[in-house]
Fold:
Amino acid sequence: DAGVTQSPTHLIKTRGQHVTLRCSPISGHKSVSWYQQVLGQGPQFIFQYYEKEERGRGNFPDRFSARQFPNYSSELNVNALLLGDSALYLCASSLDRLQETQYFGPGTRLLVL
Amino acid sequence: AQSVTQLGSHVSVSEGALVLLRCNYSSSVPPYLFWYVQYPNQGLQLLLKYTSAATLVKGINGFEAEFKKSETSFHLTKPSAHMSDAAEYFCAVSVNTGGFKTIFGAGTRLFVKA
Structure:
C-alpha cells in the first residue's frame, strides 16, 4: 500500500508570494495533520483536519490555512510568504481524529528567498 | 500544557555500544508518547509508542523505551548500536483534545563511530 504522499517535493518562492502544498493520506485514513519543521528543530503542529473540518490548530498566524477534500486529501496554503517560512512541511495521516498514531509523508521543502 | 525535553542535542556512541537517548515530558493528562526517527531529507518514521498499556515498549530495529510516570521520562535505548542507526531522533507527546495534537522535542542527533 502507498504511504502518505506529498507534492511538490521542493519549492522555491520569493517573499510575499503564495504557496499551496498538497498531501494524500494513506488509503482509509480520514485525518490529516500538518507540521512545520525548521532546520535543526522538531516539527511544530500547524493543523489537524478530519472529515473536512479543522479539529486542531497550532500557534501559527492567519497567513496559514488548510482544507480537506471529500477524498481526504488536503492542501496547506501560506500567503504573504516570509523568509522565516522556509522549512520542511510534513503531512501526517491517521485513521481518524482519535487515532493517536500518525504516519508521516516525506515532506515538502520550501525555500523563501 | 504539554511539552517535551530531549536531553542532549547530539549523542555519539561506538558501533556495538549501548544507545541511550533521553526524553522527559510534561502533561496535565495521561499522555501518549512516541519516538520517531528521521533520516536525512526524509520524513519521520515511527519507532515505537506508549499508549497506557505495558510500560516497557518494544519497537522496530531493536529499540525499546520505558515509560516512568514518577520520573516523567520515556528514554529510548538499544543494546548495540549499528552504523545504520545514525539519524535524528524525536520524542513526542500527544494528548486527546477532541483530536490529537502532537508536541515534538527538539531532537537528538545520533552519531555512530566505527
Summary: Chain A touches chain B at residues 4, 31, 33, 35, 40-45, 48, 50, 55-56, 58, 90, 92, 94, 97-107 (CB under 8 Å). The mean pLDDT of chain A is 93.
